Hints:
eleven-stranded mixed beta sheet; seven-stranded mixed beta sheet; binds fe (iii) ion; about 750 residues; globular; binds zinc ion; alpha/beta
Amino acid sequence: PNNTAARRIDVNGIVQGVGFRPFVYKLANQYDLKGEVANTTAGVSIHIEGPPQRIQAFETDLAAKCPPLAHVVEISGRSASIKPYADFRIAKSRDRAQMSTLISPDVSICDDCRRELFDSADRRYLYPFINCTNCGPRYTIIDDIPYDRPKTSMRHFKMCAACQSEYDDPTNRRFHAQPNGCAECGPHVDLYTNQRESVDTDNPIKTAADLIRQGQIVAVKGLGGYHLVADAQNSQAVIRLRKRKMREEKPFAIMSADLASIQKYARVRPQEQDLLSAIQRPIVLLQKKTGGSISDAVAPRNKYWGVMLPYTPLHYLLLNHGFDALVMTSANLTDEPIAIDNEDAFERLADIADYFLVHNRDIYLRSDDSIVRHSAGHTRYIRRSRGFVPIPLFLKHTVPPILACGAELKNTICLTKDDKAFLSQHIGDLENQITLDFFQLTVDHLQRILEINPEIIACDMHPDYLSTRFAQEQAGTRKMQIQHHHAHIVSCMGEHQLEGAVIGLSFDGTGYGSDGAIWGGEVLVSETTQFERVAHLAYVPMPGSAAAIKEPWRLAISYLHDAFGDAFWDLALPVLKQNDSQKLKIMVEMIQKDINCPQTSSLGRLFDGVAAIVGIRNQVNFEGQAAMELEMLAAGDMDSIYDVEWLAGDPIRILPAPIIRGVVQDVQSGLSVAEISIKFHKTLIALFTEICLAVRRDYDMNRVVLSGGCFQNSILLNGMIHELASRDFAVFAHQRVPTNDGGIALGQALVAAAKCSS
Length: 758
Ligand code: ZN
Ligand code: ZN
Ligand code: FE
């Protein structure tokens, strides 16, 4: 027939295991077209036949209406010869060669499943593991590829006849939904005491909710690991959880059933509303409202709550028992990875949780909740994990297979293949064996499911990082050590696909410098392959090394000694009154005799030092706490800034002393901490803008890239973007990976890739 055409359409991306073929099947039938759809290594391939106008409509819809979990990278079509086909069909996958290695992340329950969950006529009414091709677990239940039920933790559950017929029916929402199941054939929940005694109840979720309301702490097995759950309105319960978890100050995340509940205690801007209800369901930082009923102990001395909406059916069922908000914090002891295994959970959490709400669907790979905020016009990732991993970042060029091991704190790893970079889920602070085990497990697991055999291993330059040592121990593979702050900048360049040279502001807590000092207040002229350090904060000693990070008063003494010499003893400052003079003398001696005093140019440490000088705190419970509190306290209008001074040279050295002298003067004249904080922030913003102007004159470059942990400070981030933009700089900050060390593995991989191709 004349009015028939045929097209071959290839769709690349995450399009397998996400209901893409049924979607194509339905669409073809809707337009009465014939042909077939099949899986390929890159995605799916469609052969479509029929009248050209209808094929065109089909192609338009294909791009516009694809299923929620699909992540389409490219659709390409070309004319083909007519076969002809009698109908439209889904071709059977024959072997693994046809399977794509792109795997979908775990995502929140979809609207259809949620409706069925609360529909008393539905056969899955109140079933806590309801899911379909548009929602549910993926990444965390996969053991190997191809993504098929026998390769997931669902292999232990044989589908009942009703579930099987859904699974086999291409028109059904559960066609090839690997985690498909129901109360009859699928996983179920059980409630135990922390003594592993089964609690006698026919409704474990309701009983757990009752216990939580009575102030008990319940460990709840979720999607990517266990949460510790307590009533967020019950201060006693929250404080007890804090004590037991040995997490004295770090904010806890909370979960509420819906937006209306969240608006009772937090301000939710429209962009934040979108972030909260996105299918990834990250924790979103929201400004606290005054007078809400959430316990202060949830996030002490913080302007923000970390809030998420429910993402599993189990969460919805739990929150359905009338809580405004539940504390939902990763179930681990401080510094350890989140627990996922039932045995492991009972062992490690028995002293923290009173009860355990467990289920029998195994989690193969833990994945913590992601954390985001909306700042300076964009989404900023603080932790990119569940919901986002393992979606790759797409690179401008094809790169060799590389494993990048990340740094130490907030560790993630990165694997590259072709034009894709896969950043892992949050692994944690690589400071102990249990986290290192998880690191190694993640390396193995990701290499297997992504089918990547690294030719190069990239790591930090710090000789003592466990990630560096791991890299060194891998025999037979080429190693590359990448400078920490260079990796930060290149990570951000990679996100924005920038090439050539840029001005990089790498503002950070800790990073090993090429000269062995601890860097962190760095202005680099950076290309992907190399960098030049054009300016940095002048070095000060860090008395006691790592101890100075935990005890910012040590840094206060160092900065004061740097600014005033021995005259600092006469200053009337809280930090001098609060600390024993013997201890202070020891610090000065360490500084003068250079005993265990590494040199640092870290901006994070300058924040810590100023926080201690103004009297915010002498010790911290987690890295960056003092700096964070200095930011949180900033308020009011201050137009003046502190004097700044730098020494010309190569590199330029920016002196902290004039700033410290200004801060001290303000403390002594009684200016509020809020105003000093604002003034300090504004000083840094003005200072580094000046430096960028100087670099622009000398190097004739106009692009500024911002990276490093200090840019989690939104006053600094907003201020730098605003000031630089007003001087006509093109400014780039992170929007897809964290600005902290959670994003550094990407930069390491990109530097290594560029170096070996140049
Ligand atoms: Zn669903
Ligand atoms: Zn079933
Ligand atoms: Fe860093």
